[in-house]
Amino acid sequence: MGWIGESIESVKSMKIRDSLFQFITLGMIVSSALIIWKGLMCITGSESPVVVVLSESMEPGFQRGDILFLQMSKDPIRTGEIVVFNIQGRDIPIVHRVIEVHEQRQSGEVRILTKGDNNDVDDRMLYAQGQFWLKQEHIMGRAVGFLPYVGWATIIMTEKPIIKYILIGALGLLVITSKD
Amino acid sequence: MHSFGYRANALLTFAVTILALMCTIGSLSDNLNTPSPSAQIEILNINWFQKQPHGNDEVSLTLNITADLQSLFTWNTKQLFIFVAAEYETPKNALNQVSLWDAIIPAKEFAKFSIHTSNKYRFIDQGHSLRGKEFNLTLHWHVMPKTGKMFANKIVMSGYRLPEDYR
User: Fold this and answer.
1) pLDDT in tens, A133-173
2) Which range is the signal sequence, renumbered to this chain (chain B) (predicted)?
């Protein structure tokens, strides 16, 4: 209780100069997070350098809540690579493995077929109606690195937004009342 | 300065830093392993070989796959994903890669095996140029780590040929 009382006391006794300083500190935290994100985008060349696995279709390799680091290089896509792709009419990108590649001789274009390791059939069912192959433009990146469990924070916050607001509120309060 | 919140924050930051450092070291330690995998694939039989009604060639094979991939496992290995792909050129495509069979190897003791199987995924060409076609069979592996960087490599075996006639 003493901690909360102390905090309220410090809010009351705040001066304009102090509050401006706190505001700038908060701004620094937000902008450095943004810099890291945008920097990752530049380095990896992918629109979303980090994705959270949401489905069970790649088990047991990737589980729900795991984090994947993506890269988008000029190297051509080959079978076996794990790619993240967007399908027209679907909001959520899919992370699956490439099982078939056909590279055309004249145009250099590729036709790609994917499948989830844990699925019994290939992904033609998931593609847009009448779509048999993925093309280069559907691919958002390929997975190069892996970190387990970290994505659970995102999943919880997306499914229970109230936790997100509580967390943001608490952090904001902590920044405003911290004194050193 | 020495409030509860300040100490908790310092402890948490320190713990997360150490954890991140250990994950990085764990992932980097994979580089110390120099694996020496070996594999052999034999085509035992062409089960059937035909042109589909809409014009694409399809072939069914029986394969014998023998491999020793034990040296790929390290302490940071969660599992091995392996697959066999047929690779060939056609007048239309500079490269065709078609997966025929795949498997997940969950632990080192299963990494030395010999399996007799027909192709799990359909071997269909984009067109009808498979007759008499020379192709490679490639064993690919993907090392999926407990944490960190993923590794992939392959062994290419060449000199396979499909029959001149449908059967």
Assistant:
1) 998 888 888 888 888 888 888 888 888 889 889 988 887 78
2) 1-29
Say yes or no for a CB contact (<8 Å) between A100 and B148: no
Structural domain boundaries in chain B: 33-161
Q: Spell out the alpha helix ranges (H) of A45-160.
A: 152-159
CA–CA–CA angle B121, B88, B68 (5° rounding): 65
Both tokens assigned to B23: 């994950």
Tens of pLDDT, residue by residue over A8-65, are 776 666 677 777 887 888 889 899 999 999 998 888 888 788 888 888 888 888 888 8
Residues contacting A22, CB < 8 A, separation 6+: A14, A175, A176, A178
Report the predicted TM-score, pTM, of the whole model to 2 decimal places: 0.79
Nearest Cβ partner for B147 among A99, A105, A147: A147
| Interface-testing mutation among B95, B124, B135, with chain A (most A C-beta atoms within 10 A) | B95
Residues A136 and A100 in one domain: yes
Give CATH for domain B33-161.
Answer: 2.60.40
ipTM of the complex model: 0.82
Domain membership of residue A68 as a residue range: 50-149
Is the CB of A103 less than 8 angstroms away from the CB of B146?
no
